[in-house]
Amino acid sequence: MKNRIQSFLVFFLPLVVGIGIAAFLGWRAFSLHDSYLEARTAAQKADLRVEHLANRLSNTMLKTQQKLVDVLRQARDEKIDEGEAYLVHTAVVDAMAEMDADLKRMQAENPHPDLAAAIDDAVRDFQGYWQLAVSATDIVAIDPPVASRYIGDAQAMHAHFAGHILDINEKLSDYTLQRIEAGEAHLQEEQRKLIRSTLQAYLATVLIWAIIVFLTTRNLAYISSALEALGRNEGLRDEHRIHLKATKDFLLRDTAHATLQFAEAQKARDFAETLLQNEQEQLMQLLRSMPDMVWFKTANGCYMRCNPRFESFVGMPQAELVGKTDHDLFPADQAERFVARDQLAIERQEVISEQEWRTFADGHRELIEVLKVAIRGTDGSLIGILGVGRDITAQYMAHSELLDSQAALKRTQNVAKIGSWIYDFRFNTLIGSEEAYRLLDIPLGTTFTPRQFFQFVVASDRRQVWQAWHSARQTGVFHVEHRALIGGTLKWLTQRAEMEWNDDGTPCRAIGMVQDITSLKAATEALRQREEVFSSIVSQADSGILLIDIDTLKVIEFNDAACDHLGYTRSEFARLNIHDLQIDTDRAATKARIDELVATGGSSYERQLRCKNGDRRHFWISIKPIQVGDALRLSAVWTDITERKLVEESLAASQERLEIAQSAAGVGFWGVDLDTGKTWWSTEAEKLYGLPPNSFDGTQDAWLACIHPDDVAEVEQKVLHHMSSSDAFEIEYRIVRPDGEIRWLTSRGRVVAHEGRAIRVLGVNFDITERKVANEELARYRDHLEELVAARTREVAEARDSAQAANRAKSSFLANMSHEIRTPMNAIIGLTHILRRNAADKSQTEQLDKVSGAAQHLLGIINDILDFSKIEAGKMQLEQSNFDVDRMVGNVCALIAERAQVKGLEVVSDISSLPPMLNGDGMRIGQILLNFLSNAVKFTEQGSVILRGSLHAENDEQVVVRFAVHDTGIGMNSDETARLFQAFEQADISTTRRFGGTGLGLAISRRLAELMGGHVGVESTPGVGSTFWLEVPLNKVAGHRQRQKAAVLPAGCRVLIVDDIEDARQAMAATLQELGTQPETVAGGHAAIAAIVAADAAGLPYRIVLLDWQMPAMTGLQVADELLTRPLRNRPTLLLVSGTLDAPREDLHQVGIAGFIAKPLTASSLLVALEQEQDMRERQAPAIAAPAAPGDAASEQLAGFRVLLAEDNPLNQEVAVSLLEEVGMQVDVAEDGLIALERAAARQYDLVLLDVQMPNMDGLTAARHLRQMANYAQTPIVAMTANAFDEDRQMALAAGMNEHVAKPVDPDVLYAVLHRLLGTAPRQADGQAIALSPPPGADILAGISGLDLASGLRLVAGDRQRLIKLLRMFVDTHQGHIEKLHHSLHSGDYRNARLLVHSLKGASATLGFNDFAQLAASVEKAIVAEAPVSELAPEIDQLASRLAGILGQIRDTLPPAETVVSAGTDVDILRLAGDLAVLRRLLAEDDLTATDTYAGIEAPLKSLAGRSASRLSLEIGDYDFAAALQTLDAIIEAQPALRDNLRPAS
């Protein structure tokens, strides 16, 4: 068979090979073409993928850039908040992440190495763009200017990136063309090669066929010989191997190769056996050298092999170990555990591990990590178990130490309140330590962004934190202290961090720490306050206090009293030393005394010192050496005792005169100490008894021995009687002198008691011997007694009349003197006010403040004296009128509220039982109560002051009302209270020195009460407090005999009162109970929250909750904030109650509080707050559109309405009046809020227009006062202001206004608002618009640069002449504004500076100077932020330059003003001009008589100048003569007739 196959192959092989070659070559041709097409297609796909990624990246970045530009524009327009900005930020981060993935895919799939550089450049530009885009969107809502810079840099990065993408696409196109051309050339060359190969293959086939035939027969011989040798196990010879390997015949090749393989296999088997034996020896050597334990068990658990390390563990060599099991080597429980682990390794068919402590044979223990694995054969059968044990004791100990270190670090952070954090710039994420999360009160492990952290930062500190962070990106160091609101608690945090940088210099991450420094800040603030208190004590001390340098004897520190005592100023005193003050100028002696004082530790002595004017004053000086740091100083305290020395000298002289008087009058003084029984007599007393000086021994027996024996018993009886009654007494008796002479004496005495026990007796003795003789003589003339009595009666009547006349003369004199003193006092106060405006430095301002304060105090004393003198003179007139009890009490409490707040006192009023309206003199009752309350605050250091009102008696027509003021002050004893209501009397003399006062207040109160038919009194306990009361009869008022139930307080509604002071809770509860509610009280915030939640859950919710602002543990604001987080079904109305002036009153709605009520709470104040809250809800509810009222035109619908306009800017006044009068409205103008209130009180207006920014009283305050007036509770009030932001509108609405109209005023908008508020329909469009194009000649206005002529003419309805008039007013009104602005800023008066710029902004916007108005708005914003003057200077200079240009253009462009005064006017121009010249001189000299001069010309000047004259009147009344002079000059300049006739004042 084999031969037939070989024959077939030999004869038919050429045919088969030929067919095969032809088929192969055909297949090869098609294959080459297909390969070319596939390769080209694959390359094109790769290029297209890269190109697609590049285009998508370019489009994504373009969209992102557009999004950045849009969000920046919205941020500049303030149309985006932080939440919306954060959504944009998140979208940008996502887009950047997608672009980053595309760039990485482009780098990975790039088929062209030449493109790598361009792609890398694009990646670098993208990374820079990423950082800028993420940073910009992160801060765009916080700091748009910085975000703008980032977006601008991002735009440049975007341009670079787009260039790289374009370059990549161009190169890809070039590569594609080159690849196509090269592929076609290659295909043609391959086809030519294929044809050549075909010819060569046919030739080779023929040659091979011939060779095969030749070699087949030759190789058979070699194969047979080789097989025979193998059969004899002789192996192959080299000759056989060579021929077999050389066999190429395909017919015999397999046989030859099989023969060779068999021979090689036989040889390899022998080599493998040798190699296996060597490997076993090497493995055993490796096991023995391994440091780990290694062992091998058979499938039945018997040990077969182990290394020396395992031998040391079990304690026996391998030879003994072989064949043993775990039960043979270890305890039963341990062996069972080992066997179980072996079984687990067999079942799992994987490596298992465990860690356990094992005890070695030598007794030491190690922590071993054991690895076990089952060893199986190729057929899967189990051979045995291999185990390896590694010592991990060292690693375990190191890990334990690491955990201990981490725990110690954590404890350290917890104790120090320091948390650490890491910020990753690439992903814009923050992570922190456990303490950091605890400090911020957020869940552990939370990952958040800086924007989320900014939510904790207090809004006013966010800019500071951001600036510090922005600076750290350049400096690499971040450090800032700021406040954060965490969990409702305000904390101070300090943060420090250092930056880590990328290779390109950009920050990659920041590692920092955060620490709670709230307690440190509190301690620092407490230290500062203590220093201020100490400084205040030192500065206010009456004694002089000095700190002296021992070496130079110069005065280092001193207080004001030291300067005042010697007449020096502080700057003069600072240059003095001790020698300058001493009378004795011996420097050596002074130095010796100083050394002695240092050695003895100080001393006190009396010394005279020299004053600045050369006078000498006596001082008691105490000097001690003190250590100040490393230096030794002298502390000196002196007290001026000059007056005391004078008093002592006067006392000595008085004593001498007293002794002379005693001697002349024959009066002797005596005293008895009842505890010791000792008696003392003056020298004159001894002289009366005929005894030598100082001879009386002071015993009672010695005294009785001097008395006539017949009178001793009677005298003893009378003395015992009077001493037991503690009354004053008088005893007459006879004495017997040593020379036997009998004389009559009278002893007058008084028993002095202490705590009910008599302690001594004091008295005088008179010699009445002559009187006794005279009485005897008088007895002889008793018949003439009636005549003598009548004569004496006439003398007494004359004396009484004389005394009454003298009293009336005294009262008249006091009244006249009070009036005469008040006149120069007004001049003093006025001049002080003027000087204070122009004070050059802070020291002068403080001195003038002291002068003003002293003058006001003196004026108060004079007022008291005047009231007292009026009462004494019988000129006090009482009024009888109805008065609101709540308002009267509220006004009185408001006057003492600030002083009470300073001392930390709670003022409570409880007048719920009184009628709401009474008839009487409410002003005088308020005066008495104010005196009581002022004294209560003055003499109370802690606790509360309570005013209670009650009905003491009542009949059909009258009630007797009792007002009682109780305090917890120092109190008084009965002797002190007995003197209280006397004129010029106080509890004791020290009261005046400690607390001040004249002692007239209570005397006046008593007289006023008596005039009203009532009386006053006091009840007091020393150390407990006092109660001053007033009982006065008042008439009832019909219809007001009890409080009316209000609609805003439904009957029986539940009210919760939250206050930590019991008296305040009781008073408010009584008031609310009188109003028909059900009040309940709690003492703290936590109890309030629990009560509100429980009541809501029970279905009995509270209607109203009154929250005290300042309570311990939880303030009222915190309670309201916490209630916002509670899911209540019925939320109560929250009202904040506080008696402090700094309590928050605005923006309370943000924490859910509806309104504010000032303490002490009254029924009327509560009802007003509730009504305002209800009005606010109604205004916020959607209004139902009313049908349009019929009418032809706005002028007909608005005509006749009376409007009050409050506007301080004359130009804006003119504009508003013109617009209102144009539609027929009647307009009254007020220059500020105070004048507006006066005019509103005088008459009723249909609508009130208020400018928000005004001097004296702004529009918001005026609106609140108007809403408190009963006849203006519903009157429409409209705000007109240049502040057009939404928050300004909300503030206006919160103040009680109905609408908000922005300046410059759009007439259509203003008229629409007036229509809506006054109930008329808006004017219908008639197709005729106001012609705003200028009339012929209007090109003169077009020459004013920066003026929007269309806006200006629209304002005046196209009246060109009116616009020119307004432009002239703008020049007159604002020509001195910049100088006033500079003065206000340099004096620190930012409020006045804001008013000036606000006025300038509104006026310029009104006229159409829009660019200038925007510049003024920018300056106003910086002033509101109270930026330093140095930072404001460039903007103000720019503002001044622009304003000067505008004013100059207006003056140069407009024609001269026409004469304002008509020929037919009644004003005498020549006389008025002369008077104005005098007035101008007086104003320039700050002469107070300018007020009198102006009063004489006020009427003609107002008829001539109108509102400008009213402005001048206000400025003169405020003694602002500098401003008045500018206003007067503007009036004169605007009136050519006055200007031409003005003559210099003589």
What is the terminal-to-terminal distance? 160 Å
Radius of gyration in whole Å, from Cα? Answer: 55 Å
Strand fraction equals 15-25%
Instruction: Count the beta strands.
Output: 37
Helix percentage range: 55-70%
What is the overall number of helices? 53
**Broad structural category:** alpha+beta
Q: Looking at the structure, what is the overall shape?
A: elongated
Query: What are the segments in which pLDDT stays under 50 over at least 5 consecutive residues?
Result: 989-996, 1181-1194, 1321-1338, 1458-1465
Q: Indicate the mean pLDDT.
A: 78
What about the largest sheet? 7 strands, mixed
How are the SSEs ordered, and which strands pair?
Layout: H1 2-76, H2 82-109, H3 116-139, H4 144-231, H5 238-246, H6 253-289, E1 293-298, E2 303-306, H7 308-314, H8 318-321, H9 326-329, H10 332-348, E3 352-359, E4 365-376, E5 382-391, H11 393-416, E6 418-424, E7 429-432, H12 434-440, H13 450-454, H14 459-475, E8 477-486, E9 489-501, E10 507-516, H15 518-540, E11 544-549, E12 555-558, H16 560-566, H17 570-573, H18 578-581, H19 587-600, E13 603-610, E14 616-628, E15 631-640, H20 642-665, E16 667-673, E17 679-681, H21 683-688, H22 700-706, H23 712-725, E18 728-736, E19 742-754, E20 757-767, H24 769-779, H25 785-837, H26 842-873, E21 881-884, H27 885-902, E22 906-910, E23 917-920, H28 922-938, E24 944-954, E25 958-967, H29 974-979, H30 989-995, H31 1001-1011, E26 1015-1021, E27 1025-1036, E28 1054-1058, H32 1062-1074, E29 1078-1082, H33 1085-1097, E30 1104-1108, H34 1116-1124, E31 1133-1138, E32 1153-1158, H35 1163-1180, H36 1194-1198, E33 1202-1206, H37 1210-1222, E34 1226-1230, H38 1233-1242, E35 1247-1251, H39 1259-1268, E36 1277-1281, H40 1286-1294, E37 1299-1302, H41 1307-1318, H42 1339-1342, H43 1349-1355, ...
Parallel strand pairs: 22-24, 28-29, 28-30, 30-31, 31-32, 33-34, 33-35, 35-36, 36-37
Antiparallel strand pairs: 1-2, 1-5, 3-4, 4-5, 6-7, 6-10, 8-9, 9-10, 11-12, 11-15, 13-14, 14-15, 16-17, 16-20, 18-19, 19-20, 21-23, 23-27, 24-25, 25-27, 26-27
Helix pairs in contact: 1-2, 1-4, 2-3, 3-4, 4-5, 4-6, 25-26, 26-31, 27-28, 28-31, 33-34, 37-44, 38-39, 44-46, 45-46, 46-47, 47-48, 49-50, 49-52, 50-51, 51-52
